[in-house]
User: Fold these one by one.
Assistant:
Number 1:
Amino acid sequence: MGALSARLPVPWTTADIPDQSGRLALITGANSGLGLETARALMARGATVLMACRSLERAEAAQRQLEGERAQPAAGASPGELMPLALDLADLASVTKAAEQVTERWGRLDLLINNAGVMAPPRTLSAQGFELQLAVNHLGHFALTQQLLPLLEGRPGARVVHVSSGAAYFGRIAWGDLQGERRYDAWAAYGQSKLANVMTALELQQRLSADGSTVQSLVAHPGLARTNLQPTSVAARGSRLEAMAYRLMDPLFQSAAMGALPQLYAATAPEADPQTFHGPGGFANLKGHPGACRPVPAARNAADCQRLWQVSAELCGR
């Protein structure tokens, strides 16, 4: 992956997003947090945004919220449209249904931003019996990407952006216990799923390049950003210690709008690099404007990336 952490020469903001008029973007988890901010920014620059969410009602509420902001569009661009789309990443049948709907209705796609995620819940199983974090953060997005890639092919500037986390640095793939059946640690499972995002991004880029594809696969992380992931995790686990830790760490967190900048950069900046882990360029890559973060060591093993791809394809029936 790319060079050691470095801030861009001039801080990159949403004002630097090129005109997205006529482009179609699908964002998973677009009803809140990073996904909502990403939808807001792309809509303001003219993109039509498919807000792919587990709850259609919440997607529609977010749509109404963002549409209320259209009176103040970004300079030089007419705001785009927002389209709610039902998608439950914890159910591969729902993933297939959503992909079929996009194919039938639009037949094209310019940006796929795999943003949705769950963080450190008690051990829970998906509809297909997979550990929930692996299912939502990795396998659901893996299956969605495979089914939507044909719509991206041939589209100018088409990209898939995988949203990972700084937890990828501490992640390990438990090859002998992927589903945490023998031993489940919520944070280890989260790190595994976020490492899987980085490995998948790199392996997909390898495969796209080998096939002569025009699509690019990139990866980004938000640093420490205030989203609903933290309170949801605390509520699910009932951990007073974690709640206290988040309160003490609060000064280190940045807004969801700032946290969304690296994935927006990866999705739209002409100079974004598929080999770079895009994230905040500030101290320890915790916050700040987009920059290049240090590579994730465990993701640099090409054989492991290929192995994860094969295992994921088998689990998803691809």
Number 2:
Amino acid sequence: MQSESLNIGMQLQLFLDDWLIETMKNLALKLHSPQPREIVIRADRPYETPTLYDPVVIKDGEFYRLWYRTNFDAPPYYTGYAESSDGICWTKPSLNLIEHNGSTDNNLLWQAGEDDGYVLSIFKDGNPKASDTERYKAIAVSKRGMVGLVSPDGIQWKYLQQEPIIVGPEGDEAFDSHNIAFWDSVHGHYVAYLRGWRGGIRRIRRGISSDFRHWSELEYLDLSDSPPEHLYKNAATPYYRRPDIYLMFPKRFLPERKFDPDHSFSGLSDIVFMFSRDGLRWDRQFMEGFIRPGRDWKNWHERAIEVGSGLVPTGDGEMSLYMVANYRTPSVHIRRMALREDGFVSVHAQYAGGEMVTKLLTFEGHELVINYSTSAAGSIRVEIQDVKGKPIPSFTLAESAEIYGDELERVVAWNGNSDVSLLAGKLIHLRFVLKDADLYSICFR
């Protein structure tokens, strides 16, 4: 058996595609959807309307922080703020910054008209060269283009400059969406993912910058041969456990459909999943919905649901996205959606079972760790093979422990021995035999 070889070191390996896989028999890659949890933000303030939208969540040290658009009925448009110690229970602190109805006793930190910057996309700047006075940054929509904002603390904001920092080309100037920006620590530059319009389809384009002030020419994302769909409000983010892998949870919009005949607007929305290894070429092998509107009929209209920017750890083996639901209704809210750590896609085996063999690889470390789940009757066994695909003595399938359960970090052992350090640096294949099981990720350590 011959194949290309990969040096994976001790890097976490996800099964988002077949990058690591040479062969699979009776197995499939399976997309897993996040599960709805508690409502974290309700529209319970006088400035929060049915058009509350566009949340941004970050884990900032030991705390969680959330910014969101409180209204979009008529200017001024406000940005509200909430915080949490666990990402689950949230409070809206009084900031005493913005006056509303004669009082500053509210959680508002920004207001703007259509000529100004509104619909903020906020991030904490990890650029080591960034000034502490500009540690938090944001891009925001205006009629003139995308404007930049800066803040020392994420609360008190000012414009970076009077002129827009990103202007679309003639004929494609509109950025009407929640556009996303962040510091790309892997490549050492800022990245912005922006709404665009090409060929009558809402699409996503990208720009990069070394200083947040001067941006490259915008490029549309390469989605290979996937069918064209309206995609926007992209929620792009590097995966916090593998920052060189970029995730996106765009809103898919189907303008021709209508579920509720009494609703004022046509169209339906759901959320899809895609990922990239370079930020420009994106994999859309999973065309099915990542998050469906569900049984709540108030989510069955044109822009009723949206995943905001920010994927954060929220507990033991759990990570969370934050989703707007019931948009354009009085019950609009932001709900936490929970997913298993690394649990976007698994190598999935039905009861009859199957097997997978990796490409040739080299690794570092002393033990192999897997993130997996089985049924009570299911199992996983692992074999290490040589360059020719022959089982290596002491690491054969017959000597492998039969693994069953549901664990984030299970150390693989053969006859009670988990030490694989003698094979470190050598070319090997890994063979996984699965039955009624899901394998989410692996790594050596």
Number 3:
Amino acid sequence: MNICIIPARGGSKRIPGKNIKDFNGKPIISYSIEAAIESNCFDRIIVSTDDKEIMKVANNLGAETPFIRPKELSNDFTPTNPVINHAIEWVKKNDQLPEYVLCLYATAPFVDKYAIQDSLKQLVQSKLDYCFTVTNFSFPIKRALKINSNNALEMLYPEHYLTRSQDLEEAFHDAGQFYWGRTHAFLNEYKMFSEVSSPYMLPSYKVQDIDTQDDWIRAELMHKALKIF
């Protein structure tokens, strides 16, 4: 049994109504729900929320909202893992313990069914505990700069002042789309950013954090551009 859990609490402050806000013609959460449904990877697709309007939208799109997320898991400081574990425990109690779980963010309009399918295959074949989306930094991080207390520039890695960019090791970061995991890894809170995880590579043009209004506008424009091609 595989389940998809989409965390989508209400009360976003920087972008009000963020999880169901219109994104190029439909609620942004619809892209995640549709990709999960189209992947045919799941026995259940559950939206974990504390918000009745989000519940209504999610249900209309074909996802389940079988519980209201507890208040203690619905504040600005709640990390994702307790939210996922709460949903896993609910499914365990009311159905059966799943084998694989996908945490899929509600604000991931670039996600598609193929990435969900391929990353599950990658996880199974790797025999590791997690598989999640990553992308490469566009510039070598060993050449990064910082501004010190005197408002002057310094290198974060001064030992690489004369190192050519092409000679530096490539670095990657979390792409923030989704996280496949074996159920025991989530429940035992294995560290995801470690050797127990397999990287599912995304091209940089499909990666966009959406935390501010500027992020939202940029993401919509990129989404429209990709549809043209």
